[in-house]
Design goal:
heterodimer; A: Rossmann fold; 6-stranded parallel β-sheet; 12 strands; elongated; B: two-stranded antiparallel sheet; 15 helices; 72% helix
Chain lengths: 317, 334
């Protein structure tokens, strides 16, 4: 249902014609700089959306800024307000807590604030919230893996970085397994820091420690790269399935081609959510309407049949 | 091991020097203790496969740390090694990918890639050394600057994503990491060779003596007609080449470089050097200690992965405790 609502919203938003444009809109977009694959994707999609939206709405000016940490981002949105005179802010905060006050401050000055992915600690500071579905990310993964494993076997988990996002994903994964596939046993869950090298090491040690592993929930495509190499090196054939996540183009391609026996599916957590948030924000502002308070972009299972829809060959991620 | 005997209270060879001797074995004793503990917790630790995994992983940081030993003994520091490794990896992959259509995906392309790595590493070292000596800027500042520059350039080249080696090239190149000679993985062999060579240069050559003299007292070294500038520049070049060697081994492992490649390697390398018994203020040090330090750091991580006794949130704390303990047992040497 959620998915349908979301699709409807986006198509409605896009359906609003540029002719309705009233007054000049200056939209500031503040995102983390491209320091790893996923944020690289965010920067790419933000810039693509800027091009498309400025063409569609001649009255709208969009300014995309990247920040390398929370402090820089807080200064940046202040500059966006005083120097660029923005009346709408779309922000993917580096961290929730340190940016809550700066965003609340802008809202007080009359800026319409749209927060993406990481909700502020004080929800009243945001006019609208657009986010990925972290519990859904874990749940979809667990349901797919449980089914593929025939409801039994051993699975190891590689977690990301200790954060709320990671906890929500892993908790939902384990809850879904317990509820629907109690025969699947989680051998261990350790942090791979969403990093290829760390995942490689953790997987090597899992392979040393556990003589029989049926499946690996790498929970991220970068980590899946390291996991695959470790399995290859150990020449282990007991592992039958590796599930990454987030929709990195190389992994989506493998799912699409269907040649990789281990990588048969993916779960999305799309960096393009920044583009969706920008589209919704611009459309709503131009039409002079409010955005829905909260828009959740569902995590979807990607298999061979629908992979082409999630493949962005030009994106860095 | 040429600690200058400037101690005014220098007593004859008594209990004190015995203590110092035991203290100097601190890192080795620490490593043995950790290894015994790990074996007790999980017997798989001592399996050949696991030990070779551990040593292979230690090779990256270890090789870089051998270079860092020279820099630190000479009284300098290089914070940029992790970023340099990332940038070198990215550059090498891009160049090999670009050469593949004309030169083929065979050994020649890989050789060119390796050569490029060495040149990039040496040039970076040369730049560091020159800025530090002739430019008279603190090494901490110069290499902190390049730490940012190198990583930013890699991030720019990769557009925040990853740079991936062509699949065919990856097959040709992979034996450099995954291959083995007489059952011993190639990275371990390279690590041993680099360590032996490093130890030899540091203790048995004039250059090695100069490095220690400069770190001990730069002014006196100058009076002794040592070409301080040249020797110092060379230490940074040695460091750069060591980073390049580590990168040459690293690239075939994952066949990719991304902005998170080599993150915090500088701290691990410096930690390995200091755990090994080299003084952070320079003047004295030893390569074998560095090797033990690097292996110790990796072993702790490996032990924690092989067991489940401690919350994963506390991994870094365990490493911290061991580092401080080992340093504590060496304090007699200061």
């Amino acid at each position: 249902m959620k998915h349908i609502t979301y699709t409807l919203l986006v198509s409605m938003a896009l359906g609003v014609s540029g002719a309705l444009a009233q007054g000049k809109q200056v939209i500031g977009v503040s995102i983390p700089s491209a320091d790893h694959g996923w944020t690289g994707g965010v920067v790419y999609h933000a810039n693509e959306a800027k091009k498309a939206l400025e063409k569609q709405y001649p009255n709208a000016t969009i300014i995309v800024k990247t920040a390398k940490d929370a402090t820089e981002q807080a200064n940046q949105i202040q500059d966006l307000y005083t120097v660029n005179k923005i009346n709408t802010l779309v922000i993917l905060p580096y961290e929730s807590a340190p940016l809550t006050a700066p965003v609340a401050n802008l809202k007080k000055q009359g800026v319409y604030t749209v927060v993406v992915d990481r909700g502020l600690t004080d929800a009243s500071a945001q006019d609208a919230y657009v986010a990925g579905d972290n519990p859904g990310f874990g749940k979809v993964a667990a349901q797919y893996m449980g089914k593929e494993m025939g409801g039994k076997g051993n699975v190891v988990i590689l977690r990301g970085i200790p954060t709320v996002i990671d906890n929500q994903r892993v908790d939902a994964f384990e809850a879904a397994l317990k509820a629907q596939y109690p025969g699947v046993k989680v051998l261990d869950k350790k942090f791979g820091n969403w990093n290829r090298d760390d995942a490689f090491k953790v997987m090597q040690d899992y392979l040393t420690r556990f003589p029989k592993i049926d499946a690996v929930w790498a929970s991220d495509d970068d980590m899946a790269v390291g996991v695959l190499r470790a399995i290859q090196q150990a020449k282990r054939t007991d592992v039958k399935l590796v599930l990454g996540g987030a929709g990195m183009k190389e992994m989506i391609k493998r799912v699409m081609d269907g040649n990789d026996k281990l990588i048969r599916a993916n779960v999305t957590y799309p960096p393009s959510m920044i583009a969706d948030a920008m589209k919704l924000a611009v459309a709503a502002r131009v039409a002079g309407k409010a955005m829905p308070k909260s828009t959740i972009i569902p995590s979807v299972l990607v298999t061979k049949s629908n992979a082409s829809k999630f493949y962005y060959p030009n994106s860095p991620f | 091991m040429s600690t200058p005997t400037t101690d005014p209270t220098a007593t004859p060879r008594t209990a004190r020097s015995v203590l110092a001797r035991v203290g100097s074995l601190g890192p080795l004793l620490g490593l043995i203790a950790v290894a015994l503990l790990a074996t007790a917790l999980n017997p798989d630790f001592a399996s050949f496969a696991n030990v070779s995994n551990v040593l292979t992983r230690a090779a990256f940081i270890g090789i870089i740390a051998v270079g860092a030993t020279f820099v630190i003994i000479s009284g300098g520091i290089d914070l940029s090694v992790g970023s340099l490794a990332a940038l070198t990896a990215g550059t090498v992959i891009l160049i090999m990918n670009a050469l593949a259509p004309s030169l083929g995906s065979g050994v020649p392309t890989v050789m060119v890639g390796m050569l490029v790595a060495l040149v990039v590493g040496a040039l970076a070292g040369l730049a560091h050394g020159t800025l530090i000596t002739r430019g008279r800027i603190e090494p901490f500042i110069v290499t902190l600057g390049t730490l940012g520059i190198f990583r930013a350039v890699l991030t720019y080249l990769s557009q925040g994503g990853s740079i991936t080696l062509d699949l065919k090239l990856s097959d040709t190149y992979s034996p450099v990491y995954y291959g083995s000679v007489l059952g011993i993985p190639v990275p371990i062999l390279v690590f041993v060779a680099v360590a032996l060579l490093g130890g030899l240069v540091l203790n048995r050559t004039r250059y090695g003596r100069y490095v220690q003299a400069i770190g001990s007292n730069e002014q006196v070294a100058r009076y002794a007609a040592i070409d301080v500038t040249r020797v110092k520049i060379l230490t940074y070049v040695v460091q750069g080449v060591c980073v390049a060697l580590a990168t040459i081994l690293y690239v075939p492992r994952l066949g990719s470089a991304s902005p998170s490649t080599g993150l915090l390697w500088e701290l691990e390398a410096i930690a390995a050097v200091i755990i090994g018994g080299t003084a952070l203020r320079g003047g004295a040090g030893r390569v074998w200690g560095t090797v033990v330090g690097a292996v110790l750091l990796v072993t702790i991580e490996n032990m924690l992965n092989l067991t489940n006794i401690i919350s994963v949130y506390l991994n870094a704390a365990v490493q911290g405790v061991v580092i401080i303990l080992v340093a504590f047992f060496q304090r007699g040497r200061r």
